[in-house]
Automatic annotation (TrEMBL):
UniProt xrefs under PANTHER family: OXIDOREDUCTASE, SHORT-CHAIN DEHYDROGENASE/REDUCTASE FAMILY (AFU_ORTHOLOGUE AFUA_5G02870), SHORT-CHAIN DEHYDROGENASE_REDUCTASE FAMILY PROTEIN
The organism's place on the tree of life at top rank: Bacteria
Name of protein: 3-oxoacyl-ACP reductase family protein
Uppermost EC category: oxidoreductase
Alphabetized SMART domains for the sequence: PKS_KR
Domain Ketoreductase positions: 8-187
PROSITE patterns to which the protein is assigned, alphabetical: ADH_SHORT
Similarity-based family: Belongs to the short-chain dehydrogenases/reductases (SDR) family.
Gene Ontology molecular function, alphabetical: oxidoreductase activity
UniProt-listed Pfam families: adh_short_C2 (PF13561)
Coiled coil: none
EC number: 1.1.1.-
């Protein structure tokens, strides 16, 4: 299935680790040049860039705090300045917060909203100056927006639920321009933030139809499909890539 997006340019926010890194690598394997953003760990971002270059594609890493709208816009514009175009936007960067609602601080509330809601909106605005017919916007949500199975996820669930509305409304608005907008809701995925052998793993697996965590590459495969020409008639959709957690 390689080279389905040969010559395209993709932008993946939060692409230095976890699902974002897997998405960046998969899109490169399918033929895209890729820009990723990272907040702090330059060495990890550089590792992803090097991996993509070994795949024969161009890649850059841009340091940007997704909570800062100016940084988000500058990163998108910097990508176009480097590669000359933009075809695929993957809004992946996220701020995670869990705990009783009474304990959520104003600063936590502000940051989660800024990273999980404001940044995808601002990135989409900036991307639309460059996306043409066949362009793709792919938002990364969470299955807790569909099923809040555990207490303590009010803020995070709220922030990811907002992406459902953004995806539907943008899908409708951009349809006449042949730009598709879709949303992937990952379930439990084996990353540093939520390892498959972590303290919540047993309970999560019990609620998952397939009985195990996803690997980041599983989520990247769904994103790659949505980025491909084969997904040209899919827009405004939410896909639960969660092993049946929300079934």
């Amino acid at each position: 299935m390689g080279n389905t997006i040969e010559g395209k340019v993709a932008f993946v926010s939060g692409g230095s680790r976890g699902i974002g890194a897997a998405v960046a690598s998969r899109l490169a394997a399918d033929g895209a040049d890729v820009a990723i953003t990272f907040q702090q760990d330059k060495s990890r971002a550089d590792d992803i860039v090097e991996r993509i270059r070994w795949q024969g594609r161009r890649a850059i890493a841009i340091q940007a705090d997704s909570a800062d709208p100016d940084a988000v816009m500058d990163a998108l514009n910097g990508t176009v300045a480097e590669f000359g175009r933009l075809d695929i936007l993957v809004n992946n960067a996220a701020a995670f917060q869990a705990g009783p609602i009474e304990q959520v601080s104003p600063a936590e509330l502000e940051r989660v909203i800024a990273v999980n809601i404001q940044a995808p909106f601002v990135a989409s605005q900036a991307a639309l100056r460059h996306l043409t017919a066949g362009g793709r916007i792919i938002n990364i949500g969470s299955n807790v927006a569909v099923r809040a199975a555990f207490p303590g996820f009010a803020l995070y669930s709220m922030s990811k639920t907002a992406l459902i509305g953004l995806t539907k409304a943008l899908g409708r608005e951009l349809g006449p321009r042949a730009i598709t907008v879709n949303l992937v809701h990952p379930g439990a995925t084996n990353t540093e933030m939520n390892p498959a052998d972590g303290p919540m793993a047993s309970a999560i697996k019990d609620l998952t139809a397939l009985g195990h965590y996803a690997e980041p590459s599983d989520i990247a495969a769904v994103v790659a499909f949505l980025a491909s020409p084969e997904a040209r008639y899919l827009t405004g959709a939410s896909i639960n890539a969660d092993g049946g957690f929300t079934a």
